[in-house]
Amino acid sequence: MPQLSVVIPTFNERENVPLLIGRLAEVLAGLDWEAIVVDDDSPDGTAAVARGLAQQDPRVRVIHRIGRRGLSTAVVEGIQASSAPYAAVIDADLQHDEAILPRMVARLEAEDLDVVVGSRHVEGGGLGDWNRARVRISQVATKLAQMVLRASLSDPMSGFFVVRRAAFDRCVHALSGQGFKILVDLFASAPEPLRFAEEPYVFRLRQHGESKLDSQAMYDFLVLLADKTVGRFVPTRFLIFAAVGGLGIGVHLVALALLLNVLGVVFWLAQAGATLTAMTSNFLLNNTITFRDRRLKGLRLLVGLLSFYAVCSVGAVANVGIAEMIYRQDITWWLAGIAGALVGAVWNYAASSIITWRK
Ligand SMILES: Nc1nc2c(ncn2[C@@H]2O[C@H](COP(=O)(O)OP(=O)(O)OP(=O)(O)O)[C@@H](O)[C@H]2O)c(=O)[nH]1
Ligand SMILES: [Mg+2]
């Protein structure tokens, strides 16, 4: 069994993987190590390239996942596939400085630590040639992550670290696995604060391949933070569903104003039209945001829309019934109203996640 497993998540990195493995072989010469490439069936054939390397070097292994995507889960499965006492995680694109790995491992061995993090924000580290917009986004994300974590990590957004297997095992069951930021997930999922140290490195520019950091990755990051804070009490997905519902009230009012004042429709018909408009917009928003992992397309989109109308109609009846019942108990109108709306929302969420966006 090697002492160190280096987990390398890849998606379309065929040019980078051989370069990285070559560099690892140089800098880790004094260590007993292995590399585990976790590839999500990259269209560019990264898995085949990695397997080619593995055929020449028994220290290289490949996990080829099919029908799956996600940096965090790739890292988790890579670490789970190893039995080494230390696991390193490093990007395949050569942006992380592999030369500091031996020092990171040495510190884990010598000191009472759970994880050593490669940091761009301590003395000696740096972001390299980033444009101002990206620096700004990174700063905001770092601040947000620091607020959620119970550790004063200088660079929680780093995807470069070495973790002690025992510490990882303590966190793994609570991991969210959501999105891109496995280090944030790890620190936020630890039953007890992780003991950590930081080693500086300068982030390098990507030479080959393309970045996968997109709006989806940012959205996933926000969902991860929500999961690790309010998500402990209320499912994050329900909160997003409720926010979409809140937006739906605005859509309803705008549609009502247009129908009444611009088109001159009678009130009951205008109200019915506005309700239909709001339900449809809620459905489309939920389909692209709340349930994006189960997104409906084509004919299933139409069937889904009809089932969503049905679900919401039952929700509306429940809403009015409950509100009326509470109101009759001599409780103020607005409390009765909120209670009814809440029951309707919970029903709509539960029923539509089972019926409309069934797994
Ligand atoms: N297995 C797997 N690996 C991924 C996935 N998304 C990204 N990766 C890998 O994760 C590492 C980091 O992704 P990058 O796109 O480089 O993200 P980044 O370093 O934050 O952004 P850039 O600075 O723009 O490169 C790279 O090695 C990617 O190939 C995924 O869905 N599955
Ligand atoms: Mg990168």
What would you note in describing this structure?
With 359 residues, this protein is an alpha/beta fold. The protein folds into two domains: 4-232, Spore Coat Polysaccharide Biosynthesis Protein SpsA, Chain A, CATH 3.90.550; 236-354. Helices cover 53% and strands 10% of the residues. It contains twelve helices and seven strands. A seven-stranded mixed beta sheet has the order 3-2-1-4-6-5-7. α9 (236-262) packs antiparallel against α10 (267-290) and α11 (299-328) runs antiparallel to α12. The longest helix has 30 residues, at 299-328. The protein starts with a strand and ends in a 5-residue tail after the last helix. The mean pLDDT is 93. The site of magnesium ion (MG) has 5 residues, from loops. Residues 91, 93, 95, 206, 211 line the site of magnesium ion.
CATH topology of the largest domain: Spore Coat Polysaccharide Biosynthesis Protein SpsA, Chain A
Second rung of CATH, namely the architecture of the largest domain? Alpha-Beta Complex
CATH class of the largest domain: Alpha Beta
Characterize the overall form.
Answer: elongated
Order of helices and strands: EHEHEHEHEHEHHEHHHHH
- Main pleated sheet: 7 strands, mixed
Bound compounds, each kind once, are:
guanosine-5'-triphosphate, magnesium ion
The helix/strand class is: alpha/beta
Oligomer: single chain
The radius of gyration computed from the alpha-carbon positions, rounded to a whole number of angstroms, is: 25 Å
Strand residues, percent: 5-15%
Number of domains: 2
Span from first to last CA? 39 Å
Which regions are unreliable across 5 or more consecutive residues at pLDDT < 50?
none
In CATH, what is the homologous superfamily of the largest domain? Spore Coat Polysaccharide Biosynthesis Protein SpsA, Chain A
Mean pLDDT: 93
For the largest sheet, list the strands in their spatial order: 3-2-1-4-6-5-7
DSSP strand tally:
7
